[in-house]
Amino acid sequence: MSSAKILIEHNGPVTTFIINRPEVRNALDQEASALLTEAFQAFDQNDNQQVGVVTGAGGAFCAGADLKEAASNINYKAWAGHPEGPLHKPLSKPLIAAVSGHAVAGGLGIALYCDIRMADPDAVFGIFCRRWGVPMSDGTPTRLPRLIGTGPAMDMMLTGKPVSAEEAKELGLVTRISEKGKVREEAEALALQIAGFPPIAMLSDRHAIYDQEGRTEKDALQREWDMAKEAQFKEAQAGADRFSKGQGRHGDFDI
After folding, report:
1. E strands, 46-198, where?
2. Half-sphere exposure (CA, 13 Å, Cβ side) for 86?
3. Per-residue pLDDT band at 83 (split at 50, 70, 90)
4. Are 6 and 36 in contact (CB under 8 A)?
5. C-alpha count within 13 angstroms, C-beta hemisphere, residue 134
6. Cα torsion for 203, 57, 117, 170, to the nearest 10°?
7. Could you give the C-alpha distances from 11 to 15, 52, 195, 198, in angstroms and in order?
């Protein structure tokens, strides 16, 4: 495997980002963090790429920040709070986390940054940096309670306990558990399926979910309608015509 810290592979409209530091369970040092930021931005600006998959090399997802580096230089950019951090704000396109092994500390933050999280049966999630006094500046304190609720998030945050794939699914932290050893394969297949849908409606609906946070229901519904208008005129009529001719019925999404 290449010695590059972040590997990028393309399969048609799908980009796969591979964190490639298996000797440290794919912990990100400052160089790898900057490279991941650049890779995300390049993907977001590439009109030919529609869905991304984030995974790790060597059987682990990501163990967070490289604490050996932090021991000599703690002045690192906050991954979520800093404008140049890799997890600063959602991309304009979907990301799927394909988690095997450990997604802990900042690795959990990377998984939370993604739109969909899939886990191998052996995956482990947690805030393991609790024991080292390293704060979570990767978006986890904001995104985790919004995803699973304040109570479960607080339990994870204060105790640093390991959370198995099954418990993560029960909490809603992940929505799918793959066959053992196939999480990347299944995530990339799902990414190709999503990339095959009419993009305007898919992306406007995705954005509406993020945009409703903190709004009143009335305001959110108006924003939802405003964002849906482009798809209504550019995609919906053609899609309805395909349906009327028998395509995509009975749960067949291969259209």
Report:
1. 51-56, 95-99, 102-104, 116-119, 124-126, 163-164, 176-177
2. 31
3. confident
4. yes
5. 26
6. 180
7. 7, 10, 11, 18
- Token pair, residue 20, equals 């490639």
Residue 41: is its pLDDT beyond 60?
yes
Find, among 230, 222, 162, 167, the residue nearest to 200 by Cα. 230
Residues composing the chain: 255
Q: What phi, psi does 196 have (nearest 5°)? A: -80, -10
Q: Using an 8 Å Cβ cutoff, are 53 and 187 in contact?
A: yes
Q: Which residue has the higher pLDDT, 246 or 185?
A: 185
Mean pLDDT of 187-209: 92
- Are the beta carbons of 174 and 168 closer than 8 angstroms? yes
DSSP state, 77?
P
Lookup: tokens for 64: 């967070």
pTM: 0.88
- Helix and strand totals (H; E) in the chain: 10, 9
List, for residues 123-179, the tens digit of each pLDDT value: 999 998 888 777 778 899 999 999 999 999 999 999 999 999 999 999 999 999 999
Tokens representing 128 are 């393991």
**pLDDT for position 255:** 44
In the DSSP assignment, the letter for residue 108 is H
For residues 5 and 31, the answer to whether their CB atoms sit within 8 Å is: yes
pLDDT tens per residue, range 48-75: 999 999 999 999 999 988 877 766 766 6
For residues 129 and 136, the answer to whether their CB atoms sit within 8 Å is yes
Structure tokens at 170: 């029960």
β-bridge partners, 163: 125
Provide CB contacts within 8 A for 190, sequence distance 6+: 96, 116, 118, 176
